[in-house]
């Protein structure tokens, strides 16, 4: 059963880039055609959320706005055109918003307007606010129904732990885009951050053999132990990134045929050569999902001579989300601390949440705000 919707609610408002977030009381929005009002139960905090709102990352978005990313909550009310959603349902609220008349126009809610005229307009005028709030107005199509009985009942997931799927979904979008298959070998690089670690978790759950690359050898050892604890039969290897392209390539050669690469290189690592090392070891017709940033991702002759397919990918598609939750409901992932170690904070403790998120990184680690 749904509860009455209050006339006002609390939300974290960013008035200007570089200013602190303010816990404010705002009028609660009303559902209209194409929208739903969701009572937020948990909202993800990125490791670099503080850098985004402080201006360090120079992401472009309108202000003032309610901060946020993806979230999980319950439908509080729905627009008159809703046909599958109903009040009280537990839903995943996707942060990737697309124009209904042009699916190529997209942006990340409360994160980045992408810079294209259409997405700038859509974020500024319609879907400006994120999910760091007690209630959020979101597009109907961004609400993915969750099988609460299966996920939280049979399998025993906590709602705050289910928020880890926002990292897992991103990795799944890249891996599904290059059609990773069970039994194949995939390099995930770098694998020591939240998205890279999620890539390892997803690839293992898809039945692949994983080679995880990273500079932090301590974190790589933790990653390997984490995977084996949650998936005892998983094939997981690690390779240190040295910064020496030839040495890294030789290290990868010890593991035989490599079918695919999933890359999450952050902007500050754009000149790193580790991706060239990984792509150089791909078999003929190997595939690369580039979800990060690399100035020189592949040696030209390797790409041409081995017919390597290099494919960029932003986030995931709606069909990917639906298919991923089927995997989750099928029990393909671990539960509890072997799935994720979640640190939860109230809205008023957003600064501590941001600081914790910057440090609590890597495979199986997540931070959420709970309104």
Automatic annotation (TrEMBL):
Residues 34-147 form the Alcohol dehydrogenase-like N-terminal domain. One of its GO terms (cellular component) is mitochondrion. It holds the Pfam family ADH_zinc_N. InterPro entries: ADH-like_C, ADH-like_N, GroES-like_sf, NAD(P)-bd_dom_sf, Zn-ADH-like_protein. Coiled coil: none annotated. Residues 196-328 form the Alcohol dehydrogenase-like C-terminal domain. GO terms for molecular function: oxidoreductase activity. PANTHER family: QUINONE OXIDOREDUCTASE-LIKE PROTEIN 2, SHORT-CHAIN DEHYDROGENASE/REDUCTASE. This is GroES-like protein.
């Amino acid at each position: 059963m749904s509860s009455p919707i209050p006339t006002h609610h609390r939300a974290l408002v960013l008035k200007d880039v570089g200013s602190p977030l303010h816990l404010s009381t705002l009028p609660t929005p009303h559902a209209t055609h194409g929208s739903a009002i969701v009572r937020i139960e948990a909202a993800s905090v990125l490791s670099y959320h503080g850098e985004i709102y402080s201006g360090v990352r120079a992401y472009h978005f309108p202000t003032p706005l309610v901060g946020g990313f993806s979230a999980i909550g319950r439908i509080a009310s729905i627009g008159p055109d809703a046909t599958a959603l109903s009040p009280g349902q537990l839903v995943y609220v996707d942060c990737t918003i697309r124009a209904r008349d042009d699916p190529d126009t997209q942006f990340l809610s409360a994160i980045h307007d992408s810079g294209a005229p259409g997405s700038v307009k859509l974020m500024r005028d319609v879907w400006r606010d994120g999910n760091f709030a007690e209630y959020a107005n979101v597009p109907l199509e961004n609400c993915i129904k969750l099988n609460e009985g299966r996920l939280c009942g049979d399998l025993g997931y906590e709602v705050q732990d289910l928020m880890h799927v926002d990292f897992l979904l991103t990795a799944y979008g890249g891996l599904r885009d290059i059609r990773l298959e069970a039994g194949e070998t995939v390099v995930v690089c770098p694998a020591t951050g939240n998205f890279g670690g999620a890539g390892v978790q997803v690839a293992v759950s898809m039945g692949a053999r994983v080679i995880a690359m990273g500079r932090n050898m301590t974190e790589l050892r933790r990653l390997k132990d984490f995977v084996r604890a949650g998936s005892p039969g998983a094939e997981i290897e690690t390779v240190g990134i040295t910064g020496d392209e030839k040495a890294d390539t030789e290290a990868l050669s010890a593991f035989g045929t490599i079918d695919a690469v999933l890359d999450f290189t952050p902007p500050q690592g754009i000149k790193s050569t580790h991706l060239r090392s990984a792509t150089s070891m791909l078999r003929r017709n190997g595939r690369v999902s580039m979800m990060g940033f690399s100035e020189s991702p592949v040696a030209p002759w390797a790409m041409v001579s081995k017919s390597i397919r290099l494919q960029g990918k932003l986030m995931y598609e709606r069909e990917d989300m639906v298919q991923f939750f089927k995997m989750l409901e099928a029990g393909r992932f671990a539960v509890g601390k072997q799935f994720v170690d979640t640190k939860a904070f109230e809205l008023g403790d957003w600064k501590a949440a941001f600081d914790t998120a910057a440090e609590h990184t890597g495979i199986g680690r997540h931070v959420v705000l709970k309104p």
